[in-house]
Amino acid sequence: MTVSELAKRTGVTADTIRHYVRTGLLEPKRDPNNGYKRFSATDEHRLNFIIQAKSLGFSLPDIQTIFDQAGHGESPCPQVREIMTQRMQEVADKLAQMQQTYDTMQKTMKRWETQPNCIPTGDHICHLIEGFSEEGCCHE
Predict the structure, then answer these.
(1) How does residue 131 score in pLDDT terms, banded at 50, 70 and 90?
(2) Membrane spanning segments where (predicted)?
């Protein structure tokens, strides 16, 4: 099948497939008659695997590692568990950071509700933001 046919079947763009070919995640054969890349059922299976793995937080290098291990007859499952544990911690850290930012935003917005609007001067752009950084607000 062609890149456009594979794209339609899997719901990804042809450019995404071409990127996976350039990075070596997909290795289509060349049609001897016209030189076009032809994708097989195996390529479609690998692409579906890539899509699933990415949806679980695996990076393209992670996926390449998994393919390499499987290609050498080794079970990639221990590595998959290890990578997933790392990704879960990364996401938990990002969530905690985002929650802290959101909490700060809420406290700041509550304080700003009672402050007047000001006109910019040559020295000030927006006193709300400038006052926030000067006062170190909301780190209670």
Answers:
(1) confident
(2) none
pTM to 2 decimal places = 0.74
- Exposure string (b/e) for 75-108, b if CB count within 10 Å is 16 or more? ebeebbeebeeeeeeeeeeeeeeeeeeeeeeeeb
**Which residues, including other chains, have CB under 8 Å from residue 79's CB and lie 6 or more apart?**
65, 66, 69
The first and second tokens of residue 135, run together, are 């006062």
Percent helix, percent strand, percent coil in the chain, to nearest 5: 65, 5, 35
Neighbours of 46 (CB within 10 A): 18
Write the burial class of residue 109 (CB in 10 Å: 0-12 exposed, 13-18 middle, 19+ buried).
exposed
Q: What are phi and psi of 84, to 5 degrees?
A: -60, -40
Q: Considering only CA atoms, which of 127, 109, 108, 130 is closest in space to residue 119? A: 127
pLDDT 10s digits, 6-57: 999 999 999 999 999 999 999 999 988 888 899 999 999 999 999 999 999 9
Residue type, 114: T
**Start and end residues for every CATH 1.10.1660.10 domain found in the chain:** 1-74
